[in-house]
Fold each of these.
Amino acid sequence: MSNNRTSDSQTSDNSTEAKRILTGIKPTGIPHLGNYVGAIRPAIQSIQNSNDDAFFFLADYHSIIGCHDPAIIHESTKAIAATWLACGLDPERVTFYRQSDVPEILELSWILSSSCAKGLMNRAHAYKAAVDANMEKEDVDADQGINMGLFGYPVLMAADILMFNATHVPVGRDQIQHIEMARDMAGTFNHRYKTLFTLPSAVVDNDIPLLTGLDGRKMSKSYSNTIPLFGEPNPQVSSEKQMHKAIMKIVTNSQLPDEPKDPDDSALFEIYKAFATPEEIADMRAQYAAGIGWGDAKQTLFDKINDEIAPFRARYEALMANPKELEEILQMGAEKARRHSRKQLDKTRRAIGIRPLAKLK
């Protein structure tokens, strides 16, 4: 960890200060190409030549809000941890931990919820969307099927962030509201009790591409249209072949070889741009204009992606075959995280009046 870190008591927008970056990964499925391009690759690249503190965690308590299959939670946690490590995340350089291994986070979540206005939670986008969906149905209660985990999700997310006084939190645009809520909760606590929490800033990179899936919609597990990064465990079919098979399924139009094609209307070209150099992109654009066949375009795309992903496969497969090593890495990260969380929680408890009545010999 860098010694150039943010003070625990500092509260500011941190525009020119040393950064403490925090990224959460929810284990609810097997990592796919969209996860790699949209989160994994840019996050790892952003810290490789930086002295900033960086916290990466598996948000397993967040995942149980919408996924109630224990096997999926367990296997996804394993696969996602292995993926991040295989793709280059250095557990010595960052603090890489599992949320459930840091119990102080849940205690802080309760403390924050005890001073967080319910009206703030009522305005959360995910909760409002669920209520709106119910209101479109007949004879259905507005809160039908909505659990308290979904309703209080922003509080737990705030605890994830504020526990480590993260200054910068990379998020998608749909998550900006949660960072604003964390700032609100931090400000309320600091004003009511004592200035302990940094006001975090959302970091949105508009240059990160959102990949299209196999069916032309946004690549998403919920649409079942993803291209697996390393594939499902299958001794009969290698992960490389699984990726190749998925890419060959990408939907294209009915244009024949030698017919000029519009690259800007092609999911294949869109994905290709996320892996290619500017020179390669220009060359591929010319090939589209010259009428490249869809089969050739798909093979070129696979080759380009595979050139980048293939070096990670051996490490991924070794980690998946050795869960003990994964667990040791996560426990090492949990201990690093708890060095911060124990101190922060003790300060927080004392600030709200929960402290020993007297010193005992």
Amino acid sequence: MSVMIREKHQVVVLVRPGLLPMELGIVHRLFGQAVSSSGEPLYDVVTCTPWPGVVPTDTDFTVNVANGPEALESADTVVVPAAQEDYEPQERGRISTEVEQALARVPRRARVASICTGSFVLAAAGLLTGRRATTHWKSCDEFRALYPEIEVDADVLYTDDRGVLTSAGVASGIDLCLHMIRTDHGAEVANRVARGTVVPPHREGGQAQYIDRPVTPPEQCSTGPAREYALRNLERPLKLDELADRASMSVRTFNRRFRQEAGLTPMQWIIQQRVDRARRLLERTDLPVDRIAADAGFGTGTALRQHFHAALGVSPRAYRCTFRGAAG
């Protein structure tokens, strides 16, 4: 679902009691830093709540929100952060009447996003039905059980499915906001915002790297040297025995250790890194797809297109058009 970008895009944050203040701050900070080449702000960011006034947070301070739900009626983008109630045991369709009525005010053309477990609100309101979504990895099993009609992807930092977006944890709200800015105004604007916030424009991998796993004892060999070698040689064919040798392990041990440390098989991880390299080349260069395929280690444009679509759901050409903005 495409979003009509007016001269100044209206972002409205819908907060609830028990708000996580960091998530509110992320939205204001990132969208507030997005400016045009002439320095003009590209977004207006407004906070609203179904209960205007003092809103309790999950900390020892409150937030005073003057705007009621009517602010949602002029929104181009709506962001729903998490609240403390989302971390309690959930029931299907649990949403207050006031929040449900507030979301009913959102224009049909508007983009809607959630941060962390704010996805439970979008799910309860029926906004994620038939869509791909994510939430914090600790809540993914519960989310999947409550809403089997939603395609839950527990491994990604964020999802974007036809104008409804979700992010994994608190910090992946940063990734989500940068993605929306990049979609609206291209990589150059998003990269400036990322530099101003001192965060990477893209983070490698998904939630798998943050899920609790047994820590490899220091006396055991690490797969780190093999990964460093692979990253330096992504354009070359990389064989499993070659990588295992770099880590001074048997192939069987290397496979097992790699999954423990990276959350992926070696070949899955290599494909992920190759897709990331292709993404960067598509954003930053005018190289043809076949050349990017060779530089990223896919060999042929056909192989790149297949893996790229499997990972991101779009073609390399569509990705370049989206993330390089009008200039691309």
